[in-house]
Amino acid sequence: MTNQKHQFDASPVLVEELAPALRLSLRVKPARRAALGQALGLDLPARVGSRAAANGVEALCLGPDEWLIVAPEGTDLAAPARAVYADAPHSLVDISDREITLRLSGPAVLDLLAACCPRDVRAMPVGSAARTVFDSATVVLWRDGPADFRMDIWRSFAPHVRSLVAQVRQEIAAGL
């Protein structure tokens, strides 16, 4: 997920729209989590906010029986999941077209996120992720490094979130 689609002008926060990716919403009972994870080739994390990665596939635990799976476009995870369905009944839904991802990075990224996100992003450990809100839009925020985040946004909210990000970036740049 490091390929960028567009990049906006430089400032204390760099904003990049990442290339499309396969996104799957997975629901499976906790007792069947390990079997399904094995079929998908990674250990599905059990703790909400925890992430796991293997072979270019990332899994984020969003709830006790809910995961977001992200992989490069063209990855086939449906076939291995289907192969274990009898032993691990589950719901696996392709939500790839529903969202876009922005990478937000730079020395003022925590200030930008704090301006519109009620979650204490400074307290999010590197390597964690969470479903939260950015202003009024539900987003998934991935903390990839101390000053490096990804934000998954529903396409319908993307213009609103981009506008807020641009406004806050201008305010941060003016304050420097």
Automatic annotation (TrEMBL):
Signal peptide: none annotated. Pfam families: SoxG (PF04268). InterPro entries: SoxG, TrmE/GcvT-like. This is Sarcosine oxidase subunit gamma. The lineage of its organism: Bacteria, Pseudomonadati, Pseudomonadota, Alphaproteobacteria, Rhodobacterales.
